[in-house]
Amino acid sequence: PTPTGPQWKAWTAWVALVGGFAGAIAGALVIGIVAAAFGSSLDDPAPAVNILATVVQDLCLIGAAILMARIAATPRPWDFGLRPTAFWPAVGWIVVLLVGFFLFTAAWVALVGADNADETLPKELGAEDSDVALVAVALLVCVLAPLAEEFFFRGYFFTALRSWRGMWPAALITGLVFGAIHAGSSDPAFLVPLAGLGTGLCLLYVRTGSLYPCVAAHALNNSLAFGASQHWGWEIVPMTAIALGLLTAIFAVVRRVSGPVPA
Fold it and tell me: Is the pLDDT of residue 185 over 90?
């Protein structure tokens, strides 16, 4: 059976969510004001401004989760799900999740008449403005976003809500919130499939007992979506491999610094 993790209070999940995004808004305002002082437009900020503001948002989510977790006790990485799991079963569940998500998304966009290529976020971040911006946005979308969002939503938010009414209510609520927070960066037609993905990632976390498969699945999905937004073909493969390699390296450093996971 999968461990339930720390018994964080359910109300701390909502405080962390509000606090994380409040910090992100404050950080974005500061970045915008500083950029404006150097000539950037507040109405149409430069790609670097948008990218930096998004990085701050992701870091604020991680920080909010850690700060709220400290109310109970000093958290360790494995409290947020950074613990090993069986490799091949995890791969199998990732495949099941992503295939189900892609099939549902295809059926949904056909039903509502949406475009399959959701290009909103890469364009807003200026991915097409230069090669440097393209690389920066790719790293942000395919590496930092999966890491930060899984750490917050599955590692903390879902875990805290799970101590309230159990797995299914927590997974459904987490999925709905996960879909809703993408309202500003995705076409509205994709919010329902994203809510489904958010719920599925919670179930993947429960099934494997580890956040690693969730981050990997999230990175795979984002890499495919980003590549599709750029109308790439074979380029998606090395980009995905680089993203997964960087995430593996980050987790290896965390494991080395934090020490072995308790049995």
Answer: no
